[in-house]
C-alpha cells in the first residue's frame, strides 16, 4: 500500500536551517507530483510547495519562496524540503503528500514537527 | 494567496445531514474544478474525501458529496455518524501552479 514517511523534524533556532525528507513506497514514485503542506499548532493546512514527477518544475507559496527548496530523488523514492532562514512562524507539522487526480492530495505522510525557537 | 473561507463549526445529530461551505474567488474555486475536501482527526494526517468538486475516491462512503456554485463549494455529509466528527478542509487550485486550503470546519456530532 502507499506509504509516505517524513523525517528530519526537530527544534531549530530562528535563522537556522533544517532538511526534511519523505520516503515513499508502495507506488510508482516517478508517476506522481509531490507536495509539502504544513499545519501550525491549532491552525489550518497551508500548501507550501509542489514538484513535478520528473523534478524539473517546482513552485512555492509566497510565504516560503526564496527560503525553502523542494527536491526529489527518483532513484531512491525520496522527497526533500530544505528550509533556510527559519522563523518562529514556521513552527508546524510538515506533511508530504502525493498528487492523485489533478489538484488533489490522495495520500499523506504522518507528519514531522518542526519547532523554531531560541 | 488568501485562505478559502469556511465556517468555523457545524453540527448535527446522528442521522441528520450537515453541509459546510468553502468560499473563494474567481481565481480559485470559481475558476476551475480542482476543488477537493479533506477530513482530519486530531493529531492525524488529512484524508482525501472529495476531488474535482464532486468525485469520491474509492472507499469513501457515498454519504459524502460535494458541489459547487460560482465561487463557493460545499461538502454535505448525509446520515451523520459519530465517526464523522472531525475537522474538514477544502482546497482549490488557485492558478499559476498555486494551491490554497480553506480555514477549516470542525464538525460536531451531537
Q: Can you walk me through this structure?
A:
The complex is a heterodimer of chains A (118) and B (110). With 118 residues, chain A is mainly β. Helix content of chain A is 0%, strand content 52%. Chain A has no helices and eleven strands. In chain A, a hairpin with a 4-residue loop joins strand 7 (68-73) and strand 8. Chain A is globular. The model of chain A has no long low-confidence stretch (mean pLDDT 97). By secondary structure, chain B is mainly β. The model of chain B has no long low-confidence stretch (mean pLDDT 97).
List the topology elements.
The complex is a heterodimer of chains A (about 120) and B (about 110).
Chain A: E1 3-7, E2 10-12, E3 18-25, E4 34-39, E5 45-51, E6 58-60, E7 68-73, E8 78-83, E9 92-99, E10 105-108, E11 112-116
Parallel strand pairs in A: 2-11
Antiparallel strand pairs in A: 1-3, 3-8, 4-5, 4-9, 5-6, 7-8, 9-10, 9-11
Chain B: E1 9-12, E2 18-23, E3 35-40, E4 47-50, E5 64-69, E6 72-77, E7 86-93, E8 99-101, E9 105-109
Parallel strand pairs in B: 1-9
Antiparallel strand pairs in B: 2-6, 3-4, 3-7, 5-6, 7-8, 7-9
Question: What keyword list fits this structure?
Answer:
heterodimer; A: 118 residues; 4-stranded antiparallel sheet; globular; B: 110 residues; 6-stranded mixed sheet
How much strand content do the residues of chain A show?
over 45%
Give the overall pLDDT of chain A as a whole number: 97
Poorly predicted regions of chain A are none
Helix content of chain A: under 10%
Count of discrete alpha- or pi-helical segments spanning 4 or more residues of chain A:
0
Order of helices and strands of chain B: EEEEEEEEE
According to DSSP, the number of beta strands of chain A is 11
Number of helical elements of chain B: 0
Quick one: biggest sheet of chain A? 7 strands, mixed
Share of helix of chain B, binned: under 10%
- Bin the strand percentage of chain B: 35-45%
Instruction: Briefly note the structural class of the backbone of chain A.
Output: mainly beta
Structural class of chain B: mainly beta
- Strand element count of chain B: 9
Give the distance, in angstroms, between the N- and C-terminal Cα atoms of chain A: 40 Å
- The helix-strand sequence of chain A is EEEEEEEEEEE
Largest interface between protein chains, with number of residues from each side = A-B, 24 and 30 residues
